[in-house]
DNA sequence: ATTGGCACTCGGTCGGTGAGAGTGCTGGAG
DNA sequence: CTCCAGCACTCTCACCGACCGAGTGCCAAT
């Protein structure tokens, strides 16, 4: 009983099941895949695969279906990378480069993933924590209020209102703005706290409180969990391919709306620079136990990613295709991102 | 045959059907609603209502179900306003006031609508066209590029990159910034074009092209359809109450993802200051023929709205409750919005 | 090790039946 | 003229039993 062929059988089962959405039996298997052996032989292999927990049969007299473990083996060892076609790559490139600002980039990336993979797309906005500061702006709004605008080098813009005790004239504000930007130039946002506190020390008494207040606002904005924003697209795809969910769409849709949990999952599973796949019950989130998540980091071209993008679909998905699409979009996204 | 009672019967049918999700027959009707007449009499009324196209029966031997037309009559004449409870109002108020910026306000409003109504929430970001300018910012990014940041009085921030032929020093940039803001102060964004072109005339030759370029960027940003952004939340609610869709969730989810079409529908149906309801086939969008849309404008407290918020659920929805929730959120939203 | 043959299991489908719900109609009472 | 009780009729749904086919596991033969 050759070990080699057993894996071929597993691959054939996965590919067939992904395509037809129906449990696959020994006869069909030998007909559609040139295995060179008879159904009976395949049955022996299938029994072994089932023994190993890689496939299962829904009913006594139905064909076999891959288990999560089976998909895992398939993804890790059996799947052949299937690069995108040239036109596809070009389409991604042009579509992304037409974006007018960061929101647009993220939205377009989501659309691309949703369309290419046929699943739900999740795109995290570039994380504030891992971004650098491009510019800090103070805008007077009268009534002793100042609008603090933070622009990151990934193009993200955050704004906060700030109540200041004194009314500031334009000149002073301009001066402060210049100092802030000088102090912060090129630093990571997380380093800003210390930079600003040393700045405060060098300021005249009257403005010290303002500087401290601004520093607090900025660091507070960073500290908030809520600042990690994500975009969801393509839920309609779930309904399309989704009649296959045993539990129905509800738990999936509900899980997707738990943004904090979802983001936690994505962050946890995304490792260094590659594409990560989490299959079925490997996802700790309850509602996603019938789905697989494919993620990749994106961001600066020098390796360390500033955010995550991913595709979420039924465990019965086209893994090679999905992985290729996610990787491609992540790659071009990193290239297009300002900074 | 009293006209009055016939409407009572319609109301009873609507209320019962909304609650139980099951076609309602004459017997049940007399048991649950004190109509003071016998089932036989109700049957006569029902026959008349069916003749008038207000109700229909799915099968020969099933109870009656309201038609779109029936819901319409119910909403227009029969529904009693049911104001929110005080705790609910207070919850809305505090939840909205905790928002840190515009994105957050919109996100929270969406959550509120989704949770209060149990349907899908759609919130349009304050429209650029109808907003005023609070501040225009020019940020140098080196390499002969300038980042143009537009901050509206509704708190929305838009940004565009602009290639400029000359490299600008900080002082010149500050000067330009001051002039722009002086020229634009307090105007509607749509009036900016003329304001800037007259500004360009008064500028020295060397900066005239830059001014024109900035003006173009700003007006271009306004002209884009894509700039009308919307937020969708609560799709999971569709799955919850959504087993009642004859055609399944797919067409609904797909329609919701056609943002341009969806926004067109909302804009079209929203009239002056009140709450508007569009029922079933009244929606021109194909996928929404089994849903009802409840919208309200929100924005400046002086009546003219700057954006739309709405709740989309099955035609079999609790109209009074949904309308009350949408109106309440729109009202508080208008109050909370900066400006 | 592979294969053909065979008995066995079990899910899905089809046709028929009975119960129940709801209706429309008719004729009579207030 | 309005209302109502009774009745015959229709149609859906749930249930039942039988059948068919797909697929399996095992065994003996090559």
From TrEMBL, chains A, B:
Pfam families: HrcA (PF01628), HTH_DeoR (PF08220). GO terms for biological process: negative regulation of DNA-templated transcription. Residues 103-323 form the Heat-inducible transcription repressor HrcA C-terminal domain. Residues 34-61 form the HTH deoR-type domain. One of its GO terms (molecular function) is DNA-binding transcription factor activity. Belongs to the HrcA family. Negative regulator of class I heat shock genes (grpE-dnaK-dnaJ and groELS operons). Prevents heat-shock induction of these operons. This is Heat-inducible transcription repressor HrcA. The gene is hrcA.
